Structure formats: C-alpha cells, structure tokens
Amino acid sequence: MSRVAFLHTGSVVIPPVMELAGRLLPGADTINYLDDRIVADLGDDVRSISVPDRVADLVQAAKSAGAEVVMLTCSSISQLAAPAAERVGIPVLRIDEAMADQAVTLGERIVVLATLPTTCSPTAALIEERAALAGAVCQITSNVIEGAFEAVSRGDRDTHDRLVAAAIESVAPSVDVIVLAQVSMASAADQVTVGIPVLTSLEPGIQRLRDTIAAR
After folding, report:
1. What global pTM score does this model have?
2. Annotation: CATH topology of 97-200
3. In angstroms, rounded to a whole number, what is the distance separating the alpha carbons of residues 164 and 113?
C-alpha cells in the first residue's frame, strides 16, 4: 500500500482533500502535515525567510514516515515543491499544477481569483510556467476577494461561497477562463453558472497524484 502525504497551510482544506483522496486513491494510506502559520509568515519580511526550510522539513518528516510522494495543497507555496523534492529526494507535487495546465489550453485571457493576496503571484507564475511549456500565450490578471478568507476561517462557508460566486460573475464577461487559486474556494464554483470555464484545483490535482502513484 502506498503512503501519500499532504502538506497543508490551513486546516479548512483537510476535509475536502481527504474526502476526494478517499474516493480517488482508495488503496493509499494518507497522512497530513499542517503548518498553519506559513501563510501569515509569508507576509513578514523576517519570518518568510524560514518558510522554505519549514516546507522541506515537513517533506522530510513525510519521507521518514514512509511517504512515497508528497502533495502541497497550498498555492502560496507551490514554488517550493521542486526545491523540497530535490533536497529530500521524493516527488513533491503541486495540487494546482493540473489546473494550470487546463487553463492554458482553454483561452488566452485568464483571471486568477484568490481569497489571499499571497496566492496571486505564485498562481500567476505557475500558469505562466505551464503556458511556456505548452507553447501557449496567455494574458493573466488576478483579483483578491476581500472578506472571503476571513469568512471561511471563522466557519462561515456560506458567506465565503457567496463572495466568491459574486466575483466569478463580475469578471466572467471580460475573460476566457477563471482560475480559483485555492483549494478552499472549490465549493463556490458550484454556486454559479457562467458561460466560461471556472477551474478549481482539487479534483484535477488529486487525479494527477493518482496517475503519479500508478506510474511508480
């Protein structure tokens, strides 16, 4: 049985990740690691310096616990996947990479919606990276949805989803693709229907993890 580790920066994403992993990875043994100060510390000039080492240390802990592969579930640290994998010596996947690959095939004008400002730049950079690999040309913009993260953090999922859904409806007329940058935003995609793709990272990310495990 394969052991798979998930590295989180917020507890709110653990239940949906575990629910989907249970369905898509029925033979896998899963383990979770959480550092719920990383996102806050990324906004601190001093403490942010510690984040790469902390991520690598958690990946090392996962390896020591027998994990064969680690998935980062936070887009704010997706750029640390490759350095951590090289340092520790096991695959470290980004949950949002598959979503980015989808986005660059669906349209040129892509907007990234996020509930945290620390997520916008890493997600835009990831889309640019995947566009370059695919030979695609993209125009990427990003918007932070004020109040949504605070709502979901205090357990008010309804308000979070309402704010995200309103943002989706607002930007849809002017873009080709909408990317919801965080796993925690996925539930809001079901609350609204617009005439363009609204992409979330959770399901395509876990599907890519499943394919990676199967290929090992």
Report:
1. 0.92
2. Rossmann fold (3.40.50)
3. 8
- Give domain limits for the chain: 3-95+203-215, 97-200
Residue 190 confidence (pLDDT) above 90: no
Query: Do the two domains 3-95+203-215 and 97-200 of this chain adopt the same fold?
Result: yes
pLDDT tens, 45-70? 999 999 999 999 999 999 999 999 99
State which amino acid sits at residue 194.
V
CA dist 179 → 115, 166, 201 (Å): 12, 14, 8
Query: How far, in Å, CA of 180 to CA of 182, rounded?
Result: 6
In our burial notation (b when 16+ CB lie closer than 10 A, e otherwise), range 6-40 reads bbbbbebbeebbeebbeeebeebebbbbbbeebbe
Residue 89 in contact with residue 123, Cβ under 8 Å? Answer: no
Q: Identify the burial level of 186 via C-beta atoms within 10 angstroms of its C-beta, where 0-12 means exposed, 13-18 middle and 19 or more buried.
A: buried
**Alpha helix positions (H), 29-136:** 38-42, 51-64, 81-88, 97-106, 117-134
Place of tokens 């913009």: 141
How many Cβ atoms are within 10 Å of 148's Cβ, its own excluded?
27
178: its two tokens: 């909408």
Q: What are 170's two structure tokens?
A: 């607002």
Q: What is the pLDDT of residues 115-169, one digit of tens each?
A: 999 899 999 999 999 999 999 999 999 999 999 999 988 999 999 999 999 999 9
What is the CATH architecture of 3-95+203-215? 3-Layer(aba) Sandwich (3.40)
